[in-house]
Write a structure and sequence with these properties.
Helix content: 55-70%
Radius of gyration: 21 Å
Order of helices and strands: EEHHHEHHHE
Structural class: mainly alpha
Largest sheet: 2 strands, antiparallel
Distance between the termini: 13 Å
Length: 164
């Protein structure tokens, strides 16, 4: 853990491994909630598939069954994507400045001056994680290599993850 003294107070940046463990906790939380949220969609897929299985010929009911499956899958993907975005953006821009995983490890997300971040900045940080992951996760690995322990998405959003 690297520390840096400022005029206000000593800032302790959260390194790669602390952030990784926080992410694992968040992933467990989102996975559990996502499972519960997905149950109605899975039911829709199953009932649509049963409807298709009852009609061997390609008729209107079969087409409706296929449309039901596609609609359920697309709906599930959209709900899960929005759920992840809102979880991270709302939690990190809230009074706690942290997701449940970050709270468990006494971490918080700030701007470069140590202030709370806005929902818009938290949203930018969240979607910046896509780029961090697309480049063989090198964007995430930067959190273990940079002076302020910033991942690429932190740099893009002008954020820091610090220890409380």
């Amino acid at each position: 853990m690297e520390t840096l003294s400022t005029e206000k107070t000593e800032v302790r940046y959260a390194g790669f491994w602390l952030r990784f463990v926080a992410y694992l906790i968040d992933d467990l939380v989102l996975g559990f909630v996502g499972f519960l949220v997905s149950l109605p969609f899975i039911g829709g897929i199953i009932f649509s598939a049963i409807g298709i299985g009852e009609h061997a010929d390609l008729d209107e009911k079969t087409a409706l069954g296929i449309a039901g499956i596609i609609g359920s899958v697309v709906g599930l993907v959209l709900v899960i994507a929005v759920m992840g975005w809102l979880y991270f953006a709302l939690m990190e821009s809230s009074k706690t400045q942290a997701t449940l995983g970050k709270m468990a490890l006494s971490l918080k997300v700030t701007d470069m001056e140590g202030n709370s971040i806005s929902f818009g900045r938290a949203t930018g940080r969240y979607f910046g994680k896509i780029i961090s992951g697309m480049i063989l996760y090198i964007g995430y690995i930067l959190a273990g290599l940079t002076e302020k322990k910033q991942a690429l998405h932190d740099m893009m959003a002008g954020c820091l993850v610090i220890r409380k």
